[in-house]
Amino acid sequence: MERRADKHLARQDDVLVRAVTRVWKARERGKLLERVRDLRLLKNVWSTWQERIRELRHLQGGLECASSRDLYSRGLQIMLWHFLCDLIRML
Prior knowledge:
Elements: H1 2-59, H2 66-90
């Protein structure tokens, strides 16, 4: 009788370990999926940002004045700063 009780407890422990392992694996898969999704979003946003920069450079390509170019680069830096702040808020 005692042996049967020990077997029953061992079986319960095994079932509990399997359940905890299943939950842990599901949680880890969820975290991985979240990281992959965030990385894809970041890559997408970064490529969009680079395209926008190329468009702005093309539009501003005719500027010959050094001070205008300096002002242009400062404007790009400010835009990049705001973009990164918005991106961090999204994540």
